[in-house]
Design brief:
Number of helices: 6
Order of helices and strands: HHHHHH
Strand content: under 5%
Distance between the termini: 61 Å
Structural class: mainly alpha
């Protein structure tokens, strides 16, 4: 993306590097719960990536992976798509979670019976 800031570029590059490492490894799935990826996605969200016109995390990461590690990306296109789709879903979930408004939550509940009944 041409209209990104240096923080977004750095985070996208780190995510692409992780995907390259995954493609070069034996495992076919990415441990999305990995704290490094979660931190990068949170930083990406806070840096304003989600507000960029035409932002598509899966496509952006796939393009970077294809330029960083051409050989495995070319031969393992299905695995690359799977990995980037998982990262993209995790980002969308985080984006939805972070954008919730306080009024979208349920009403507070009484902590115990006596506070609920006034007894």
């Amino acid at each position: 993306m041409s209209d990104t800031n240096p923080q977004i570029e750095e985070q996208l590059d780190k995510l692409a590097t992780i995907c390259c490492e995954q493609l070069n490894g034996d495992e076919s799935s990415l441990a999305i719960e990995d704290s490094t990826i979660a931190e990068l996605l949170k930083s990406l969200l806070m840096s304003g990536y989600a507000r960029k016109e035409g932002a598509n995390l899966q496509v952006d990461i796939e393009n970077r992976v294809k330029s960083k590690c051409q050989e495995p990306a070319m031969h393992r296109g299905g695995a690359l798509s799977s990995i980037t789709a998982q990262v993209g879903k995790k980002f969308q979930d985080l984006k939805r979670w972070e954008s919730r408004q306080p009024n979208e939550k349920s009403d507070p509940k009484a902590a115990n019976i006596s506070s609920a009944t006034g007894a």
